[in-house]
Amino acid sequence: MSPSLVADAVAVRLGGFLDEIRARSADYGPEATLFIDAAADTLSGGKRLRARFCHAGWLAATDSTDDTVAPDVVGLAAALEVFQSAALVHDDLIDNSDTRRGRPAAHRALEAAHRRAGWHGDAEAFGRSSAVLLGDLLVAWSDDLLEQTLAGHPHAAATRAEYAQMRRDVTVGQMLDITEESAWSVSPPQALLERALRVASLKSARYSVEEPIVLGATLAGGGDALIAALRAFGHPVGMAFQLRDDVLGVFGDPAVTGKPAGDDLREGKRTALIAIARERLSPDARRELDAGIGDPGLSDADVEALQRTIRASGALDRIEGMIEEYTAAAEQALAAAGLNRRATEALNLLAGAAIARSA
After folding, report:
1. Nearest to 258 by CA among 170, 171, 359, 115
2. CA gyration radius for the chain?
3. Rounded to an integer, what is the distance from CA 119 to the centroid of its chain?
4. Which of 18, 157, 271, 310 is the most exposed place for a label (fewest CB within 10 A)?
């Protein structure tokens, strides 16, 4: 099945859902229209990986040979994509990121709308406050789509419970991520890699890959053995996915990623890449690295100097080795899972798209 079929089906479902939202909100006034349009804008673009992983999990639990995508899995996949948008809105706000997918981040877009309208007060504060509520609105929309999908569904309870677990995990993971930007300074140096990998697991590996696969299989009534096999595949793919993200956050090409070069350095992200670099650097070089990470005023030359330091430490090579190890673990798990051909092919394709990427 073409990957675009899932993305196209989700786009149609989201379009219909947004039409319903706008029809019910017609009497809210023009400011509410601005707010709803801003939320809708966050749903355009993206790789739809979570939606596609969800569909692949559903395929693993069925014997379907139909080339259309079942309406229930489309609804669940759409809910996941809306929740992803909510997470990105809040993530960009927390990280003070100006861009997302090459466009202004939601809080910056709302700030610009305030200025265009000539409203009174602090446009930046308005953008940030509105983005908090925008993320909350998207979480509510995600719940709406989920409940529409699960109404009368035979596997509603199990799917709802799994979705709730995903939401808890990613929220705690996000909190641990921002905590690590401060707590690293009083943590034992030898514990920093383990702590960074815990954040990667909760914030990304489970949420971005493992849970979408498991949710799709749960919706289709997959049993415990199948779910365990899918987790054994999904988690290492998710870890490799996040480690690739860590590399791109420091070394990515802004023309491809849609984010400034070295954005993770300016934001102070204490990733596995940074933990390994710190462990391997001399005390003087480590102090220079620590002084630069988290400085929003880093120039391009400063970023390039930090990139050279990280690369020279061997941390980049070690992370690439870890990505290979996680990839091999996922391949072994998939080979042992005994899934049907369609699910195996879909999961193989998606694993490659998640790990071997430049954005």
Report:
1. 359
2. 21
3. 34
4. 157
What angle separates helix 123-150 from helix 30-41, to the nearest 10 degrees? 70
CA atoms within 13 A on the CB side of 240: 25
224-251 vs 192-200: helix axis angle to the nearest 10?
120
Which tokens hold the place of 39?
A: 């939320």
Nearest to 60 by CA among 205, 207, 214: 214
Give pLDDT tens digits for 40-94: 999 998 889 999 999 999 999 998 888 889 999 999 999 999 999 999 999 999 9
Contact 100, 43 (CB under 8 A): no
DSSP result, 237-279: HHHHHHHHHHHHHHH--HHHHSS-TTHHHHHT---HHHHHHHH
Judge contact between 46 and 81, C-beta under 8 A. Answer: yes
Beta carbons within 8 Å of 219's beta carbon, 6+ residues apart = 58, 72, 73, 76, 153, 155, 159
Closest CA to 181 of 275, 311, 65, 302: 275
Measured distance CA(211)–CA(222) in Å, rounded = 13
Q: Is 314 left (phi over 0), alpha (psi -120 to 50) or beta?
A: left
- Is 99 in a helix, a strand, or coil? strand
Q: How wide is the angle at C-alpha 110 spanned by C-alphas 107 and 114, nearest 5°?
A: 135
- For the packed helices 3-24 and 71-95, what is the interaxial angle rounded to 10 degrees? 80
pLDDT at 102: 82
Cβ(193)–Cβ(243) under 8 Å? no
- 281: pLDDT confidence band, cut at 50, 70 and 90? very high
CB count within 10 Å of CB 220 equals 20
**Quick one: tokens of 34?**
């601005």
> What pTM was estimated for this model as a whole?
0.95
DSSP state of 28: S
Owner of token pair 């596609």: 52
Which candidate, 200, 217, 241, places its Cα nearest to that of 350?
Answer: 241
Q: Domains in the chain, ordered, with CATH?
A: 3-355 (1.10.600.10)
**Ordered DSSP codes for 126-139:** HHHHHHHHHHHHHH
Place of tokens 């930090």: 306
